[in-house]
Amino acid sequence: MKNYAVELRGVSYQYQGHSRSAIHDIDLKIEKGSFVLISGASGSGKTTLSRCINGLVPHFYEGSFSGEVYLNGRNTEDFALRDFGTIVGSVFQDPRSQFFMTDTTNEIAFGCVNMKLPREEVWERTKNSIERIDISKLIGKSLFQMSSGEMQKVSIASCYAMTPDIYVFDEPSANLDFRAIMELHDILAELKSEGKTLIVLEHRVFYLADLLDRMLFLKDGVIRDDFSRQETLSLSDSDLKRLELRNFSLDALMPYPHPSDLQKEARPILSLSHVSFDYGRRKRCSQAEVALLHDISFEAYSGEIIGIIGDNGAGKTTLAKLCCGLLKESAGTIAINERQLSRKKRIGRIYFVMQDSDYQLFGDSVLNELRIGVSRKKSDDTEDQAILEKLSLWEKREDHPAALSRGQKQRLTIAGALKADSRVLFFDEPTSGLDRGNMLRVAAELESLARESRVVFVITHDYEFILTACHRVLYLNEGKIDQDFPLTENSKDRVLCLLRKGGASSG
């Protein structure tokens, strides 16, 4: 008889206030020590399934639950919520959402302290976790001054200290650069070698190809396919596209063909001349919050989609904030349509979609989010519906933005950009947490924006998205533009090489 780490029997769950179940009639058995990838489009039920395993459903989220969940052969209906942490370690998309302390050492020890373990054992577990996850350089560091990759490691170490047998990772690569993703790969490999059961919910799957034993594909709250390792890695590109799954190999990818009729206008829309940024009197502004820039010059023309890449900390987001007027340059000039504009005059002229969508959503419904700042006379119901339908959000139009999945929130901020009048738009990691289908939809909408006599900038570590959407690449290195080149079949390998240089500091 097989020994199962996780077993679900007829599990269904419907969130309070929702009209239909997020998952229904799930039967699932996961063997101990196996590595299971759970895939599927945004909103397919992946996160809800994981919450049934780690106890957040039904102990934390209110709703209607039915069925049975067994962990290591024990029925979880007999568990208190605190019992789950000793069996299941959960690592969320945004590690900040699971932090309780302000520094790394206390955060790693926090779970053990709450288990009321003896002081000596808490310290021993904390030291062992630090060594196994290899984060000794982060000891005593403030959680508020860390990169996404560093925070991810601390959250894993916090789980490891509680010695769970099962780990659930919910889109762990969503906020990571290339190097941090490969460091995550090595941690997962280490956990697998220790015989841990690993359940990973993920869209960007290239780094998991050599680890997975099995892939479950969810659609509409149901497990539609259950692939073995061999079946998973044998899926053709057409199969992956049909399932809206990303590629397991990056090397064979090619740039998408772009319309040949995108002609540069005689004048650039946006031009920077010898622009620099330093802290000046902003002593409170730390390196973790914003990077320095040195002598930045370039021109951007109507119809271009420009990818901005580089290590974390290279200055990519700082550059966007300067252009938008959120920061003031210490030297140089920034012009729109060859008209030099001060920082205050740039505010509102350039649209910026931030990486963390929660900071940019204010409406009480998806539909009303598009209407914020738009007078009733200028409001266009037909346009709003068309935008939401393009991004697969029309069915969610009455939902509160806070109730959306991460990918859906990301698409809603992009919907706001489609509604904006700005001729220059910056998107900061617009595809974090997006499946292949929605990645392609976002790329198509950016192409549409570019064809409307606009210029679009994309700050991203997502190689698949760069090949899909971008015409040109700016590579920032230590606050300077190190390379500026068109994206072609001949230059795609250069992009992958630059991304693989990675960067683990904050940016």
TrEMBL record:
Cellular component GO terms held in the UniProt record: ATP-binding cassette (ABC) transporter complex
Keywords linked to the UniProt accession: ATP-binding, Cell membrane, Membrane, Nucleotide-binding, Repeat, Translocase, Transport
Keyword Isomerase: no
Native organism: Stomatobaculum longum
Localization per Swiss-Prot or TrEMBL: Cell membrane
Pfam assignment, any one: ABC_tran
Major site of localization recorded for this protein: membrane
UniProt name for this protein: ABC transporter domain-containing protein
GO molecular function, one term: ATPase-coupled transmembrane transporter activity
Role this protein plays: Probably part of an ABC transporter complex. Responsible for energy coupling to the transport system.
Residue stretches making up the ABC transporter domain: 6-245, 270-503
Topology of this chain in the membrane: Peripheral membrane protein
Family: Belongs to the ABC transporter superfamily.
InterPro entries, per the entry: AAA+_ATPase, ABC_transporter-like_ATP-bd, ABC_transporter-like_CS, ABC_transpr_CbiO/EcfA_su, ECF_ABC_transporter_ATP-bd, P-loop_NTPase
